Inverse folding.
């Protein structure tokens, strides 16, 4: 069964970019891609994999230093 998880979305893109792209270098090794079929911005670049929103919230402030527009999303794993 699917489990609800939380992540921090950094950005979204129409085209796929490598997770080692210079724009993502500060979080290298911790960025992953969530593909969406119901959005024009198909590729969502995410950081972290958290069991609850409170844990994601603890991480978002440091992420926003580099990605001020970052926000918490939920997804099923």
């Amino acid at each position: 069964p699917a489990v609800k998880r939380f992540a921090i979305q950094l950005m979204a893109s129409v085209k796929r970019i490598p997770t080692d792209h210079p724009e993502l270098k500060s979080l290298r090794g911790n960025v992953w891609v969530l593909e969406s079929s119901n959005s024009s911005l198909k590729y969502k670049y995410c950081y972290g994999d958290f069991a609850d929103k409170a844990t994601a919230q603890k991480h978002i402030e440091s992420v926003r230093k580099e990605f001020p527009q970052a926000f918490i999303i939920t997804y099923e794993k």
